[in-house]
Write a sequence for this structure.
């Protein structure tokens, strides 16, 4: 019901454009560093683990496709979503929880304003907008991380790394990752806002809401990942 | 202006309100007193439709609150101001933006007119110089005054005050209550003030309603309440250990 009302408020004007932009900056731009770091090291470790495995079967030339497809189809969207849940989702749940406990949400309602439209919709929209962009950043930086390990450290040629990648990666792989990111964006916005909005009163209530938001969103991301993968690929 | 009839509200097994009935006339300022956790704040939230009663009826400005549609409730709420216990100011906005917020969102006024109205209200509560500060930079007393300014900027007909002096020192608490009293005198608002500040609140209200064990046990002008023979009222208002709290001689002219 909460999700339905939120989506309805999202699709009906007026949209709180300024708030959406502010939250997109908060969820998107402020997550950039953590996404860049995790993307780099994820790409590096995939290359480091993948190279000896591929060498056993004499296919080390396929390191580029392996790193890129792992990141684009799976690791990019999922790890980005998990990192955003931890960094921004927890903050969203806590902020809305504090607004609930300090009666700011009641104040909005008593001013004749719809709290969902002011507090929840901007976060959900921002989350949906930010996740695909962050996922693409994660993928690109991750592929570069794989290049550092595969080419610079382990001696594979750069031409092979990128050449094979362009042979194997298809448009539907990229679109599949974007669909996943959009789904996870909606999920993070919905779960974290819901938990904060229905937070119990007091510090303990806000703390519990924040924990539940992160745990529930993380588990749901992994569960949804299976079903979205089934549908998209 | 406000009429409550046989109002019941429970949470789980706990019956908080057990048949509350009382009335507030237009222009009247009524204090609602009673022990902590007795349902006073709950009663205010029922009056504005933030919660639904289990049984009973509430009429505010001639409207049956429980029977209103969302749109009608919104319209009714635009006539009511609510000063929350903690102020409920928006942390992310300055004092100016907090007070301007309801005007920007609910009226078609231009920024120039909004500025004029906001500064007028901030002047009224003595916080013109704090316009650019954030709520976190304000003291408890200042927060309550900004909350009052944000409430008054919408020109409400009814104002409900939910323990607005909680957590304030006696001097600031006195100043805040005096401000509420002065605002009521000037604007002739209908108001309900939930407070434990006895006898200070007796100086600014026309009537006092006492909530005890889920019911209103007395609705009297302050001087008559002090003289009430009811043991419950005597115990609460004149608390045995604290001596007589009803020092009303000096304020008799106000009542």
């Amino acid at each position: 019901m909460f999700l339905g009302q939120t989506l309805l408020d999202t699709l009906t004007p007026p949209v709180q454009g300024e708030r959406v932009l502010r939250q997109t900056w908060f969820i998107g731009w402020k997550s950039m560093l953590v996404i860049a770091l995790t993307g780099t090291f994820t790409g590096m470790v995939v290359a480091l683990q993948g190279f000896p495995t591929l060498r056993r079967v004499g296919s080390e030339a396929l390191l580029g496709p392996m790193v890129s497809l792992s990141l684009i189809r799976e690791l990019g969207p999922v790890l980005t979503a998990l990192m955003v849940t931890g960094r921004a989702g927890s903050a969203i749940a806590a902020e809305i929880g504090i607004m609930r406990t300090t009666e700011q949400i009641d104040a909005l309602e008593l001013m004749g304003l719809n709290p969902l439209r002011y507090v929840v919709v901007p976060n959900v929209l921002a989350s949906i907008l930010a996740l695909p962009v962050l996922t693409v950043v994660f993928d690109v930086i991750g592929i570069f991380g794989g290049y550092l390990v595969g080419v610079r450290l382990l001696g594979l040629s750069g031409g092979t790394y990128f050449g094979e990648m362009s042979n194997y990666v298809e448009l539907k792989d990229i679109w599949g990752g974007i669909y996943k990111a959009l789904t996870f964006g909606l999920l993070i916005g919905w779960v974290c806002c819901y938990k904060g909005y229905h937070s119990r009163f007091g510090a303990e209530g806000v703390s519990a809401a924040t924990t539940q938001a992160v745990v529930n969103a993380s588990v749901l991301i992994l569960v949804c990942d299976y079903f979205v993968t089934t549908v998209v690929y | 202006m406000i009429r409550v009839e046989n109002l019941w509200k429970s949470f789980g097994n706990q019956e908080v309100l057990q048949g509350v009935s009382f009335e507030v006339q237009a222009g009247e300022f009524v204090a609602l007193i009673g022990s902590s956790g007795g349902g006073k704040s709950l009663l205010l939230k029922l009056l504005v439709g933030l919660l639904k009663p289990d049984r009973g009826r509430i009429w505010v400005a001639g409207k049956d609150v429980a029977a209103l549609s969302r749109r009608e409730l919104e319209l009714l709420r635009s006539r009511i101001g609510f000063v929350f216990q903690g102020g409920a100011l928006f942390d992310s906005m300055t004092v100016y933006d907090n007070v301007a917020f309801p005007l920007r969102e609910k009226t078609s006024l231009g920024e120039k007119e909004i500025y004029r109205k906001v500064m007028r209200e901030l002047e009224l509560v003595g916080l013109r110089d704090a316009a650019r500060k954030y709520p976190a930079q304000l003291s408890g007393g200042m927060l309550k005054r900004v909350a009052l300014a944000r409430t008054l900027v919408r020109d409400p007909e009814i104002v409900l005050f939910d323990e607005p002096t909680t957590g304030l020192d006696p001097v600031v608490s006195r100043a805040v209550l005096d401000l509420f009293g002065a605002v009521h005198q000037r604007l002739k608002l209908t108001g309900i003030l939930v407070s434990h500040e006895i006898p200070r609140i007796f100086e600014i209200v026309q009537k006092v309603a006492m909530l005890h064990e889920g019911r209103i046990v007395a609705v009297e002008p302050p001087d008559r309440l002090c003289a009430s023979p009811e043991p419950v009222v005597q115990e609460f208002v004149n608390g045995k250990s604290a001596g007589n709290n009803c020092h009303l001689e000096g304020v008799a002219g106000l009542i």
